[in-house]
Amino acid sequence: METTYEDITLVCKDCGEEFVFTAGEQQFYAEKGFTNQPVRCPNCRKARKQQRNNNY
To answer: In Å, what is the CA distance from 37 to each residue of 23, 28, 55, 56?
Structure first.
C-alpha cells in the first residue's frame, strides 16, 4: 500500500512563524526513517545548524 502525502502547515518552535512541510519533504523523511515532523522552519534549522558548526 502506497502512502500519499499532503502539504502540512506547521509552526516553528523557535520563531513562531508558520511554514509548510511539503509532501516531498514528508516522503523524504519517511524514506530516511524519520518519524517526527520538523519543529523548526528552514531558516531556524539553518541558523541552528550553523550555530552548532561554529561551536566545533
So the answer is: 12, 11, 26, 27
**How many domains does the chain divide into?**
1
Range of the domain at 15: 8-54
Classify residue 38: in a domain, yes or no: yes
Say if 34 falls within a structural domain.
Answer: yes
pLDDT digits (tens, 9 = 90+) for 23-37: 999 999 999 999 999
User: What Rg, from alpha-carbon coordinates, does the chain have?
Assistant: 13
Q: How far apart are the first and last CA of the chain?
A: 44
Question: Does 1 reside within a domain?
Answer: no
Query: Structure pTM?
Result: 0.81
